[in-house]
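S.,

Sequence below, as promised.
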Amino acid sequence: MITKPDAYLFSTCNESRTRSENMTAHEKTVTLLNSIDAPFSVVIGHYQGREELSFLIVGKKYQNLVETICKNHAQECYLHIHNDNHSELVYGDGKIEKVGKLTNVSKAEAEQLKNYTYVPVTGLYWTTK
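The prediction came back faster than expected:
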């Protein structure tokens, strides 16, 4: 996971949409992020026990974009990862919930949790503690 600049973890998936609709939303977001040369990775998030394709985008200058994308896709929140890996959930209404430090965990430990992220390019699992 990124530890120097701030980063943001979010998804465009929504339980109220079909799998096909979620894939379309995800693909449109990939196209958007590529078009502006944003530094991002596609990751596999698990939020409240639900698996969802997600994005990890690096750089504080992208926070407003992340907020807009999340709002447009009716996301409850996104994870703001500070440069020291301390993290917080940022909700659409502006509420901020500190959730701990982003920490690398084993696959076995991650799979026992409701909230974790798998980063395919590194093969690493992350959660907040």
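The chain has three helices and eight strands.

Coffee later?
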